[in-house]
Design goal:
Helices cover about 50% and strands about 10% of the residues. By secondary structure, the chain is mainly α. It has a two-stranded antiparallel ribbon with strand order 1-2. It is globular, with a radius of gyration of 12 Å. The termini are far apart. This is HNH endonuclease.
């Protein structure tokens, strides 16, 4: 499990949630820090994000503890 700061650029004050390593990597591959700060700053909002839905459905059916994650082209363009 890894600690995910819900407000990435304010780590000292930011609340954290524990997520598995693959999910943590996926969060940062799908969302920019700005998106995480402005739109997805709670565990509920992260779980409800459309971009996470298919991934969460898939990862729940596996017992993987590590996966290869690539940053999406959309995120690269938004950074």
């Amino acid at each position: 499990m890894e600690r995910h700061h819900l407000v990435p650029e304010h780590r000292e004050e930011s609340p954290v949630v524990l997520v598995c390593s693959p999910c943590h990597d996926q969060l940062h591959a799908l969302f920019t820090n700005e998106e995480l700060i402005e739109e997805y700053h709670t565990a509920e909002k992260l779980r409800g994000a459309d971009r996470m839905a298919s991934y969460l459905g898939w990862i729940r059916t596996t017992n993987k503890t590590s996966i290869d994650v690539r940053t999406s082209n959309d995120v690269r363009q938004r950074r």
